[in-house]
Specification:
- This protein is an alpha/beta fold.
- It has a single domain (about 5-125, about 200-265), classed as 3-Layer(aba) Sandwich (Rossmann fold), CATH 3.40.50.
- It is built from eleven helices and eight strands.
- An eight-stranded mixed beta sheet has the order 1-2-4-3-5-6-7-8, with helices on both faces.
- Helix 2 packs across helix 3 (about 95-105), helix 4 crosses helix 10 (about 225-235) and helix 5 packs across helix 8 (about 180-190).
- The radius of gyration is 17 Å and the shape is globular.
- The two termini are about 35 Å apart.
- One of its GO terms (biological process) is proteolysis.
- GO terms for molecular function: aminopeptidase activity.
- InterPro entries: AB_hydrolase_1, AB_hydrolase_fold, AB_hydrolase_sf, Peptidase_S33.
Length: about 270
């Protein structure tokens, strides 16, 4: 299994294809395993690298793993690029991964050639979305009890709906539930979407993220998740937005994504 010690954590990763780097960042909970079909298709446009974030799937976590901050997640992504010898990348992030990708571009703009943000979890864009996220945070913590897996399941049920959760293959449900400890560490940390102190970006912050950006929402996602996209599209200077069918698990290799990435990596 390929892995790289990056930012003090052993991160599992996979690379598909050749050429300019395309970095995929998964949401919470999730794993690079769920990105493999998309990574293969993105790998026709460059070297698509997907990895398990700290505490998820096949990657390690520092012990004790009680908290993790957005800064940790951004530093992991940058350190992985360093270990792979990649100065820059097109960064594709879904949900919490989109939040991490956005902050990577905000704090390290020289590392980002372009952004694809699939319903990024920046829940401080307006009061209604912020209130929804606070309610979800409370619900997840209440559901956890002594079993961190319940935290992961609660997040997915809200984002995807109970019916979608029940339709998932048993092994996929277990993979998602296995990320419960990392979900709780993110909730207890700073900067991430369900933290008590989530990331806030001002209008000036957004205006400074001057990289080509594609924002994608899904027609059947919960309204708070969909609302983030037009809010960001109005603040990012080089953003375009698209709406695709389906729910929150937007395909990272959807045709609109492939076309956007192709324009950057292949000119």
């Amino acid at each position: 299994m390929p892995s790289a010690v990056a930012n003090g954590v052993d991160l599992y990763y996979e690379a598909h294809g050749h050429g300019p780097v395309i970095l995929g960042i998964h949401g919470s909970p999730s794993s690079a395993a769920l990105w493999e079909p998309a990574a293969v298709r993105l790998g026709t446009l460059g070297t698509c690298v997907v990895y398990d974030r700290r505490g998820y799937g096949r990657s390690s976590a520092p012990e004790p793993f009680e908290t993790t901050d957005l800064d940790d997640q951004v530093a992991d992504a940058a350190a992985l690029l360093d270990r792979l010898g990649a100065d820059t990348a097109v960064v594709v992030g879904r949900s919490t991964g989109g939040l991490i990708a956005l902050e990577l571009a905000h704090t390290r703009p020289e590392r980002v050639d372009g952004l694809v943000l699939l319903e990024p979890a920046l829940f401080t864009v307006d009061g209604d979305t912020r209130a929804w996220a606070a309610e979800l945070r409370a619900k997840v913590l209440a559901a956890t009890g002594d079993d961190p897996a319940q935290a992961a399941e609660a997040v997915v049920r809200v984002a995807l709906g109970d019916e979608t959760w029940e339709r998932l293959e048993p092994d996929v449900r277990e993979l998602l539930r296995a990320g419960g400890r990392a979900v709780l560490a993110e909730i207890r940390g700073r900067g991430l979407d369900l933290s008590a102190a989530p990331l806030e970006l001002t209008g000036d912050d957004l205006a400074a993220i001057d990289v080509p950006t594609l924002l994608v929402s899904a027609s059947e996602s919960p309204a708070p998740l969909r609302r983030v996209v037009p809010r960001l599209a109005g603040g990012l200077p080089r953003a375009s937005a698209a709406v695709v069918s389906g729910g929150h698990l937007i395909d990272p290799a959807h045709p609109v994504v492939l076309e956007f990435v192709r324009r950057i990596t292949l000119g």
